[in-house]
Amino acid sequence: MSSLLIVEDDPGIAMGLEDDLRLDGYDVTMARDGEDALRRASARTFDLIVLDLMLPKKDGYQVCRELRHAGVRTPIIMLTARTQDAEKILGLDVGADDYVTKPFNPMELRARIKAVLRRAAGAAERPLAYRFGDVEVDFRRCEVRRGGILVDVSSLEFKLLSAFIERRGNVLTRDQLLEAVWGQDVHVTDRAVDNHVVGLRRKIEADPAEPRFITSIRGMGYRFDG
Known about the structure:
Number of domains: 2
Strand order of the largest sheet: 2-1-3-4-5
CATH topology of the largest domain: Rossmann fold
Order of helices and strands: EHEHEHEHEHEEEEHEHHEE
Structural class: alpha/beta
CATH class of the largest domain: Alpha Beta
Number of helices: 8
CATH architecture of the largest domain: 3-Layer(aba) Sandwich
CATH superfamily of the largest domain: Response regulator
Low-confidence stretches: none
Radius of gyration: 18 Å
Strand content: 15-25%
Number of strands: 12
Distance between the termini: 37 Å
Mean pLDDT: 88
């Protein structure tokens, strides 16, 4: 039975989520504000967190950021009434794994939960660390080191690098990278993908202008050779 932490301050929505997910077979724990969410998520291990953005005491962005900084790698689905893509991207950049906008269909939320849990199970099967050149990627801590020195990568950059490593040797189109890193409901341009690839190259390549690991395949996309 998968364990879920649901963080929602609206009593009606919280009760509906709790009842619905318990009926679906999940072990559900509730939190009603950001500080309570941090305490509960730090005290025990959950399989997934459904995190409302607008919360008392600390909002969802703060909760997500603090959990990731503390090394908590539990998958997080953000739940909010906001619809701006910039806010969705910010949620992903602070460490959220998916984003569901209110009002939502309970069936859609359950499908998202199952999809994120499947991805997390697949990630658990990969090695704890991966090395290429002088770069080491620690999947457990979501850290990148180059020459033994910690590299400052954002959550989106780490997801992008993980997507390349998981599909190493294969050509990935921009659409495939968009789906793997940003998800289907965030509208990001191809230029944004290119900019993140350029930023990632600056951090892992000895010569970003002549990349050794992340190469461009003209008219198609990118390939990682590690």
